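Lab manual, section 2.4: Encoding a predicted structure.

Procedure: take the sequence of the chain (137 residues), apply the prediction step described in section 2.3, and record the output as structure tokens. A sample record is shown.
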Amino acid sequence: AARPVELRRSRADADRALRVLGSGRTQRRAARLSDVYAASLLEELTDRMAAEDDLPDGPVIRLRAYDARHHTALTDTLDAWLSTFGDVPSAAAAVHIHPNTFRYRLKRLAVVAGIDLDDPEARFEAMLQLRLRPPHS
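Recorded output:
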């Protein structure tokens, strides 16, 4: 902080950055808030959801429940696909399966989750839900 009036904000920013560093959302050992800003927003959103008992309902939640019941990995499939911007060979390699098996899983998860993978809003919602930690974890 350059001026005393900025101390409160500087301390709050430092606390937010430290919280992210301790959360496991990053591999960094030191960071400014600007380095981990998106992760700090996810932490705050998770806190708000827990405080208001406002758990999301959506495709990722349905996939996680399905995976738990059936011992499948459809959530990991979706995460790999989104993380590779839809590049099936790269996503399949990331989860160590054949690209054809990966394509089958994509079709299956779209049905199970009720998600339209061609819809950019649906993809954004899924990506956000994948990065939110449930409040109890």
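Check your result against the sample. The helical segments are 7-23, 37-51, 59-70, 74-83, 88-94, 99-113, 120-131.
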